[in-house]
């Protein structure tokens, strides 16, 4: 049965339609196509005549056969403004308006190149040109150098229709037809962008793979039809173990059908068979609501997705997923976002989808955003809800949130900033405190008239009100002030052959914030930013906690130094060639507001750990390192590092390491080409301190202009215990122009291998 299904996957992929997803191409400007041979035309392309009233005729000899009949022989070439004809012998009959060419015939119009033994050309009553060719070789060069080509015992072509008898059709380069469709009759309707073949046989390297009485496909662009199926093997998390402790493997087969409903909308229908679970019915509808208003915006899109398993063979339950998403610009200032995602149960992803097993919840939300850059005004209204999945536990959600932010006199020497946000929090656990939090901040900064250094004092006040469900209301007022002294120096220099703009920024920041008891305030959405690693940005921001439930006291000085070297000829969004940063804070208060519930303060040292980073990006190399250094221990207590070498999408390697003192992790991603057509890809995420592999991906891809194949194997920790893993294997086969896919295999590979583009070329 398994062998039959594998064969079925290969068979179905051969009459897949070219639609969304993969698009094989041999465009020489695309680096991923270095494996493609140089495209050749059937014969050299010539320029048409510039005259619309007459023919340009060249021949070694000419003869008048009768009053209006002519015979041209010897290297004949006839040019008009719409076609070119070359042959050994050409007879022109002016009365019947036909031209007959024999011997080494070559015919060129705006779409096709045709070579054959005999050609008869004529014009219909509408003066449209019609050509009939015997024993023809053809190439659709009007679609580009990767257009279709083949041979035909008889070819008939008019303005929009090409009819082929006993012919072949392939989208491989000329004389390199790794695969081809052979049929008794092939009709190419250029106007409808559709090809139809009768009694078609698909051959791959000369071996017949499949027969279809009637076969239809899209000549170029998107079109309705089957996409490339996806076959994979997997180990079901709920499968029982045999006497040796091994779980029985299963297989799944996904057959997608794509409907090109209109230029701005489409529908994907999928039938998936899971051996351990039964059939799953899927559908995804997409629609372009409106194109982007300006280059700064995105297209307005609507997407609706549903998956349904009527009866799970293992549990007897109905299993389903619903996902609705919409992004829409109402105007150039107002944007609407919506997302609704739900599954039938917490185990849906681990048991049915076999993806997204690390997620803890599904967030659904509605959001209206208003942005007026000219007046420095933003406003948002948000409501959200969540569903717990996998090993998720309940957390607070924002039942309703409204915020507004306004900067007055932004470009003046004394900008004023005002922010107000009100949030109503909800929790699925009845015993948890909930309520409305209203938080406002008013701040003023003054830029003194001093050229160097730049001195900017500022003051602020933060007002917060908690209207709680189970406790009395709480009001909190925290005053703050600060001073920033900026010693920035800018100069031009050179580094490693680059002309650079260098900026050196020594900064002294003094922050004061009143000390206030806050242990009685509930914690809705606040986290300690120092909990994992203290970064340069964390120290220089002056605020330890995210969210507003805790506002840390301050009476401290932060010293920081940043050196930035940028390519003088680079773009604004290009990374620095070299960026080095270091910072440390000094505290006059040995206590800080605590983020632990019902605790007011916690003890701290008189100075922070040192946060430093180095970012290096030159050519194909990118290095990023963040370290947290403890001066008391003279030891690096936390470090995150990554190193990337990237030549192209098929030749790169990335290594990431993290050590927080108690847990060490490493991540490795890469793709290595073996030849111009074959490359390996892989990814590893491992907690080295415990020896636990979180996930592992390995695969092999073969890619040419004609066809491509990818095989991938996955190993994923299912979280059920040490050494308990889920295993799965997937593959896909694509024929250029006939097969394309947007399968789960593609998304899974890209999510597991950072930087890898799973689009087969």
Describe the structure in your own words.
The chain has 761 residues and is mainly beta. Among the domains are: 1-39 and 649-718 and 720-761, no CATH class; 41-226, no CATH class; 277-391, no CATH class. The protein is 4% helix and 57% strand. The chain is built from four helices and 44 strands. The strands form four sheets. It has a 26-stranded antiparallel beta barrel. Strand 11 (194-204) and strand 12 form a beta hairpin. The chain is elongated, with a radius of gyration of 34 Å. It starts with a helix and ends in a 9-residue tail after the last helix. The relative contact order is 0.09. Mean pLDDT is 86; it is low at 1-35.
Please describe the topology of this protein.
Elements lengths: L1 H12 L42 E3 L2 E6 L2 E11 L4 E10 L4 E11 L4 E11 L5 E11 L9 E9 L3 E9 L9 E11 L4 E11 L2 E12 L6 E2 L3 E6 L13 E14 L2 E10 L3 E13 L9 E10 L9 E11 L4 E10 L4 H6 L7 E12 L4 E12 L8 E12 L7 E11 L8 E11 L8 E15 L5 E13 L2 E7 L2 E16 L13 E2 L7 H6 L3 E2 L7 E14 L10 E10 L3 E3 L7 E3 L6 E9 L2 E10 L4 E14 L2 E9 L4 E10 L4 E10 L4 E12 L3 E11 L7 E11 L8 H9 L9
Antiparallel strand pairs: 1-3, 2-3, 3-4, 4-5, 5-6, 6-7, 7-8, 8-9, 9-10, 10-11, 11-12, 13-15, 14-15, 14-44, 15-16, 16-17, 17-18, 18-19, 19-20, 20-21, 21-22, 22-23, 23-24, 24-25, 25-26, 26-27, 27-29, 28-29, 29-32, 30-31, 32-33, 33-36, 34-35, 36-37, 37-38, 38-39, 39-40, 40-41, 41-42, 42-43, ...
